Structures are given as C-alpha cells and as structure tokens.
Amino acid sequence: MKAHWLDRPGAARRAWIAFAVVLSASVLAQLFIAVEPHFAAEGWFGMPAVVGVGACAAMVLFAKLVGAMLKRRDDYYGDGSGE
pLDDT category, 82, cuts 50, 70, 90? Predict the structure, then answer.
C-alpha cells in the first residue's frame, strides 16, 4: 500500500510553509485591492487575518473547555472484568 504524502519525512513542514505563504499572499493582496470597510477596523491593514487567527484561537479554547467539562474518569466504564 502506498504511503500517504503527509507520512513522508518533511511533508508536514512543507505544508506549514505553504500555508504561511498563502496567508502572507492574502494579507499582502490588501495592498493592491481597494477595501470598502463598513466599520473603521475593517480598513486596518491585515485585519481579516487577525480576525481569522483570533476566531481560530477562540474555537480551540472553546473546544478545550467543552472537553474538560465532558471528560470522564479513565475507569468510567468499569475495569473491564465484565461485572
């Protein structure tokens, strides 16, 4: 069976670099595209990227909070002896 491309050595690092290049290009595109903001903060350089990173961080923190609230002890289902 053929190995997945992410299993190859260095593939994850190359993927992170590619993501960083795409993010940088999308932020730099704001220099060449006229922005028509509805609010003052929308016109700030790089604001969509800041909002995206903030939203991602908020989702991760919320998921950790929900995980902590729903977590059960390791022996929640018993010790496996069938009793």
Answer: low
